[in-house]
Fold this protein.
Amino acid sequence: MLRRRAVQLAVGGRALGSRDGRLCSVLGARALLDPQWLRLPRFVLTALRGFSGVMKGEAVEHLFDDRFGSLAVGELPIPLATIVYNTDLGLIEYLGTHTTPEVPLGRVVRITVALPPFIEAVDVRGHLYVDGGVVELLPIQPVLDHGPFDHVFGLNFMLPERLAPDDITGWHRKPMGIVLASRELQQAYHVEFARRAQRELGDALTIIDAADPRLCRGGWLMDLFIDRSRWPELIRTGYERTTTALQRLRRPPSRSINGSIPGSPALSRH
């Protein structure tokens, strides 16, 4: 489908299929639940010096190190780029194959879940980084830098479906209407950045709404980290939605003159 070349902007640089299902199941058990409860009193006594999050997120890095060894992002067979936020300099950067080839895959994945004060920031080259999704949820700069591409696929988990927020006209006259308005304001700049990306790429971009965005926002998102019972449903739903979105882009199998599909067993005639 992509005639020139492809960039996979995804964690891991390879698809996690059914044989890696145990990796996904272990993530919830080990990866995020490593709070530093015993160190909290010390942080309080030192005026939070050295504190950047209740949970370390180290288990995420260790999990990927166990699974992929010392694999650095520069060694991935398919280029990877992930958006991050440099909290020291206040800058958006991209870690990955072309920019930080020496950084281990596990370290990059750990940064994608870093979100102080819940999960601590991560050190790379002397600076502390957190998930770049705090600024932009549909980052396309690597695609622009390394393109052009025949087609680009953007997976949407948190923004409104089709990048169309709910119409809340008259919210100020509804009970608790201010709550609805505040939710719209919280995601306003994320939606606008995504729409600009959509206009920039035009018809070359297909946005796949892989999950119900209501489940991946605010307290619901943190609840998903703690309660893994919803994970199988989310994985199945994401697979089904993605398959449906890609279906219209699939080429129909070519047929020979007699109507058979090349490579398929010939029909016997009697």
